[in-house]
Structure prediction request, 211 residues.
Amino acid sequence: LFSIRLRVYMKFIKSISENEMIAEFLKAEITSDRFATGLLTALEQRAAPVRLIEEPNLHSQSENEIRKSVLGQYRGYATDALLFENFPHNVVWQKILLTPAELAEVKYINYDYWNQLSSQTRTPVRAVENIKAGIEVFHENNDKFFAIAKAVAEGRKFPLLILIAKDVNSYRVVLEGHARLTGYMLQPELIPNEVEVIIGYSNDFSHWALY
Prediction:
């Protein structure tokens, strides 16, 4: 039944390039408390302006190369390290639309913090239940999730979530946007009927430990 729901409701928008995915990834993380410092340091070391992230020109090959190398330096993209250790090189990137129900079924990466926050289910719905119950993991408070939920209620627009999956009938995992996804689930009544996301497909995700 789960795979049938995916086939029926998930809507394809268009194929996109790796460069567009990278630009969206960096745009999201430049405001991250955890990752912005590493990103900005990588930019500074290349004497590259923040404009390359905030207003990316996807038609500029030199810009695309800088953004890819920046993501490689602080997150391990295309260098087989950190988040992207054993990450496939044959990923096909697309933009799709998901229903709120499909969004709720997206899994967190297989990582200790998210596993514990979601009581080993890796689902944002269960994580939100724990957050509302005041459960905190690894002594990290949950303020960031409530801040995102408040911003959603105030109408703020966020960068697209970036997901991955083995194929259209496989479960989807968040690559970038865990905190945003959790914040959205704190305000489920405000989630649009169709949510635009980026997704990458590769059968080789079965070899990525975080899948």
